[in-house]
Amino acid sequence: MRNPSTDRLAGRAVIVTGAASRAGIGFATAERLAGERARVCLTDIDGPAVEARAADLRAAGADAIALAQDVTDEAGWEAVMRAAAGAFGRVDGLVNNAGIVVLALVEQLSIADWRRQIDVNLTSCFLGCRAAFAHFGEGGGAIVNVSSISGLIGSNRTTAYGASKGGMRLMTKSLAIEGGPRGIRVNTVHPGVTETDMQATARADASGDSASIAAAIPLRRTTGPDAIAAGIAFLLSYDADYVTGTELVIDGGLTAQ
Quick count: other Cβ atoms within 10 Å of Cβ 68? Predict the structure, then answer.
């Protein structure tokens, strides 16, 4: 487990969705938060896999639990909130990380694939935020919604994915306005080209390799999940207590061009 030099998240209880993959942003985030002494609830539709990831964290000394969750299930969100609050005594933060991508030209994009991406990427984020607003205590809370640079700029074959991630960005701003008086902060993180298993799958369906992609990025490299996790940890922490309704873009300068 990483050993950050700060305990700025000590004692805070945070739910992280989509955390079953060792190579994903969700698990990297849960590991980073645990390294900063947060208590973490990892969820994923793959119950056995997410339990294994929580066991990895517990073996390293973390206070971590795992729950099987379909993030598109409305009733399931209430169950997750109750389980996390029961285990930790409260819920202080939520990371809406679960997501999918189906790359397709618009005339080849099925309505089923459109709806699935909207449901998993956007509707689930709404459900999670709504549930968190209801469960945060008087001290407020923090939500980080994991969007994408596809939520900021257009790109080929991302009609549905971009719509879902762009919708998340604007929904987050509205939630930040609603939550501000209650001490609830809501922000988005927008990863660029990040070496995850989902990125590898998407790349297999498209042209280009790591070298050619990196050449288009001002920093001349892609990044890994740890860089995204670091940004998420900041937004959840007391260091960001005056940051809400905004976007943290972690893309090596790609969208600056």
Answer: 16
